[in-house]
């Protein structure tokens, strides 16, 4: 006697049934007397039998059914066949696979931190609050940096823009996720985008304050590059978690490559320029200018300034 | 202040200064009879003018590769051994690239020949050339003072149409100029550069050099040309750049030192005691956007510029001195928006390119207030200074300075741009400018 599991997939989903199999075998069909009942209009009342052979092998037999049965895609019509565990049997629109109940199951899959993150906002009120915070932060930061006076219609357009972006992002990536991974995760993608908008805006302001206090164009550019680069990698890793089944290390590697190559492409024109092409008649200094309240750096005296500026005359050979 | 046809130099001032050296038209020299240059000119004596047409040569810089002239101007013989005077800017392309150019003349009779460059003066825009087959007659320099209102006759070949004579009064020396320049009220045109301007006795009183439009023309005084001729030098091709550099140094040092040493007369700007026309060669212009009712920022500005600069090449000039003040106040903006509108970049006031200048290097820092112990959140002062060097003239630099004082919703910017100066003078002038501005 063997203790087996039947995994039955039909239009209603997947159901699991455990049963004992001995020499008498079991009936599979639409009849209420069947050992495994299949509710499928293309299946006969007595459709299949599964029995235990003398040598302990499993035997599958089609009982001359109206529409026949298939084992791993091959027709089973009125023949007894050896069945090896986990093979796929098709009858009508239903699929059945048998497993040994004593076989060990695969270890539990580690739950991704990204899904834990998404679940924190699983309730509708929290999702709504998160969306509102994202739209508010984005609009505020935008308004603070524009040089136009604040106007209500501009604010509304900004909020609408955020919502449109979130919708577009979640739907398009959700669709891709459905294709690649089989689950859309649109809600998780929406949450990730909201968090991304908040982080990006806070990062923008923080970098602006740091660069304003540093007043060094080159170092400032590196700070922006590293911070926004790290942010982009983080966002991509999150996105890949929701739309693909890549391993953690692969997600990071692919994200890093995508960010680096995008940056390389964006700046390629500059990198390939000859020295005489990048010559300019204007100066290049830190553009960040903020109100006095945000200045932390202490000023220097004119003497200190002038002695520090002396090295400007050491002209680099070009 | 020399530019070639069609380029606007300073829109604010609306005056367009044209160079008289002319590019691009084909030669059409006319055959005018030979005559002695000794007789005197007079309004009633048309016959005697003819003698002076003979004295004007067309000077052409030819680029052998193109097989054609690349620029033209005028010139005149000043000695029996064939010395010819013209403008530096007529032959500047030869000076900047002697290996790619050749200088030729064409006389009014159509006779052509080559010329050898002996000496030049980039400050006064003069050059001396040697004629291979000198003419027996030549023009003499006048030893008399030129009286205001005296009639002057300028000769040259405008736009290659043929030697022309332009008559007009001398109006004395140009105001707002560090170098002496004669203001001549006659219409000089491109191509007449380097031609002679003679008095009624037929003696040279000046050399045609530039125009500012209708009847506003400039002559280099004869004494500058005479000095260059009398120096009797012959500069080697290899020394052209070092010669230009030393001429600029010699001219700039006293010109800038005077600004450093002199007291700057106080002029009011936006309610503050500042300065403006700090020497006679500086001219200031002011403007405000008060008439704009929809302005977000109310701004008042003033810019001052010294009248002289040195033209070295079509892509290079040096010696500009310029400063400006700008006071702005937020009308509708908050303090973050107001400061976001500030773009602290500067650009050079003199033209240059990769071959002639390095890129700007800048130093930026905040200056401490009068009482450094007190941390004050209401204002700050940011100072930006930038320097670029001349590649072919080591030791000379262009410098830019910007001093910004942000105080609540107000900003005051003073900007100084100086060109072709040595580093010790840049530091001194910058410092004086900062101290006078604060």
Characterize the structure shown.
- The complex is a heterodimer of chains A (318) and B (438).
- Chain A is of the alpha+beta class and 318 residues long.
- Helix content of chain A is 46%, strand content 17%.
- Chain A contains 7 helices and 11 strands.
- Chain A has helices spanning 113-119, 124-145, 152-180, 186-214, 217-243, 248-271, 302-308, and strands at 2-10, 13-21, 26-29, 36-37, 48-52, 58-62, 69-71, 74-75, 80-83, 88-91, 94-100.
- In chain A, a hairpin with a 2-residue loop joins strand 10 (88-91) and strand 11.
- Chain A is elongated.
- With 438 residues, chain B is an alpha+beta fold.
- Chain B contains 6 helices and 24 strands.
- Chain B has helices spanning 46-53, 92-96, 222-231, 240-261, 335-340, 423-437, and strands at 18-19, 56-63, 68-77, 83-86, 102-106, 112-121, 126-131, 151-156, 164-173, 182-184, 196-198, 204-211, 217-221, 266-269, 272-275, 282-288, 297-306, 310-313, 316-318, 321-330, 361-367, 379-389, 397-407, 410-421.
- In chain B, the strands form 5 sheets. Chain B has a 7-stranded antiparallel sheet with strand order 16-17-20-24-23-22-21.
- In chain B, a hairpin with an 8-residue loop joins strand 9 (164-173) and strand 10 (182-184).
- The longest helix of chain B has 22 residues, at 240-261.
- In chain B, 44% of the residues are buried.
- Chains A and B meet through helix 7 of A and helix 5, strand 21, strand 22, strand 23 and helix 6 of B.
Find the biggest chain interface.
A-B, 42 and 61 residues
Major sheet description of chain B: 7 strands, antiparallel
Please trace the helix and strand order of chain B, writing H or E for each element: EHEEEHEEEEEEEEEHHEEEEEEEHEEEEH
Structural class of chain A: alpha+beta
């Amino acid at each position: 006697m063997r203790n087996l599991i039947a995994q039955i997939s039909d239009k209603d989903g997947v159901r699991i049934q455990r049963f004992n199999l001995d020499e008498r075998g079991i009936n599979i069909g639409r009849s209420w007397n069947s050992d495994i009942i299949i509710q499928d209009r293309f299946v006969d009342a007595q459709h299949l039998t599964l029995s235990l052979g003398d040598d302990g092998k499993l035997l599958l037999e089609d009982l001359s059914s109206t529409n026949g049965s298939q084992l791993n895609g091959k027709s089973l019509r009125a023949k007894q066949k050896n069945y090896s565990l986990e093979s796929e049997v098709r009858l009508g629109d239903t699929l059945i696979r048998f497993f040994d109940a004593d076989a060990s199951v695969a270890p539990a899959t580690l739950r991704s931190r990204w899904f834990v993150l998404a679940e924190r906002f699983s309730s509708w009120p929290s999702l709504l609050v998160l969306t509102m915070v994202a739209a508010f932060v984005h609009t505020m930061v935008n308004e603070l940096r524009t040089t136009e006076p604040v106007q209500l219609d501009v604010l509304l357009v900004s909020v609408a823009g955020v919502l449109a972006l979130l919708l577009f992002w979640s739907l398009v990536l959700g669709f891709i996720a459905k294709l690649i991974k089989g689950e859309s995760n649109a809600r998780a993608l929406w949450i990730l985008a909201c968090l991304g908008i908040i982080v990006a805006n806070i990062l923008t302001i923080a970098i602006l304050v740091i660069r304003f206090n540093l007043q060094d164009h080159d170092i400032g550019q590196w700070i922006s590059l590293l911070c926004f680069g790290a942010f982009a990698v983080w966002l991509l890793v999150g996105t890949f978690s929701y739309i693909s089944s890549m391993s953690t290390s692969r997600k990071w590697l692919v994200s890093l490559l995508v960010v680096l190559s995008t940056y390389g492409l964006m700046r390629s024109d500059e990198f390939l320029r000859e020295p005489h092409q990048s010559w300019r008649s204007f100066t290049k200094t830190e553009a960040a200018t903020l109100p006095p309240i945000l200045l932390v750096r202490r000023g220097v005296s004119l003497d200190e300034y002038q002695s520090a500026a002396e090295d400007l005359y050491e002209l680099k050979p070009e | 202040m020399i530019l070639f046809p069609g380029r606007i130099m300073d829109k604010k001032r609306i005056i367009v200064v044209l160079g008289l050296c002319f590019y691009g038209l084909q030669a059409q020299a006319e055959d005018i009879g030979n005559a002695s240059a000794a007789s005197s000119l007079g309004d009633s004596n048309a016959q005697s003018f003819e003698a002076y047409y003979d004295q004007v040569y067309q000077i052409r810089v030819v680029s052998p590769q193109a097989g054609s002239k690349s620029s033209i101007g005028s010139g005149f013989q000043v000695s029996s051994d064939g010395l010819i005077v013209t403008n530096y800017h007529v032959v500047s392309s030869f000076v900047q690239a002697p290996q790619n150019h050749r200088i030729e003349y064409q006389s009014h009779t159509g006779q052509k020949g080559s010329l050898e460059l002996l000496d030049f003066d980039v400050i006064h825009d003069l050059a001396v050339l040697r004629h291979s087959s000198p003419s027996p007659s030549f023009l003499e320099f006048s030893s008399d003072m030129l009286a205001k209102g005296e009639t002057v006759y300028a000769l040259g070949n405008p736009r290659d149409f043929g030697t022309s004579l332009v008559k007009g009064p001398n109006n004395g020396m140009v105001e707002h100029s560090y170098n002496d320049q004669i203001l001549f009220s006659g219409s000089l045109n491109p191509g007449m550069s380097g031609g002679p301007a003679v008095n009624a006795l037929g003696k040279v009183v000046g050399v045609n050099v530039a125009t500012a439009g209708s009847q506003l023309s400039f002559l280099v005084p004869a004494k500058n040309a005479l000095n260059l001729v009398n120096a009797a030098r012959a500069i080697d091709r290899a020394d052209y750049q070092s010669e230009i550099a030393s001429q600029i140094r010699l001219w700039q040092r006293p010109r800038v030192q005077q600004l450093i040493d002199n007291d700057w007369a106080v002029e009011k700007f936006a309610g503050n005691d500042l300065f403006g026309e700090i020497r006679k060669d500086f001219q200031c212009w002011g403007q405000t956007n008060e008439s704009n009712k929809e302005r977000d920022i109310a701004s008042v500005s003033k810019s001052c510029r010294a009248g002289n600069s040195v033209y070295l090449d079509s892509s290079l000039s040096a010696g500009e001195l310029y400063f400006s003040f700008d006071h702005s106040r937020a009308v509708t903006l908050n303090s973050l928006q107001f400061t976001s509108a500030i773009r602290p970049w500067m650009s050079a006031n003199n033209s240059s390119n990769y071959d002639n200048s390095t890129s700007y290097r800048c130093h930026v820092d905040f200056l401490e207030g009068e009482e450094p112990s007190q941390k004050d959140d209401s204002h700050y002062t940011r100072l930006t200074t930038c320097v670029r060097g001349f590649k072919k003239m080591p030791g000379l630099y262009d410098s830019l300075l910007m001093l910004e004082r942000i105080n609540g919703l107000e900003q005051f910017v003073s900007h100084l741009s100086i060109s072709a100066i040595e580093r010790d003078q840049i530091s001194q002038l910058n410092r004086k400018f900062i101290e006078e501005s604060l």
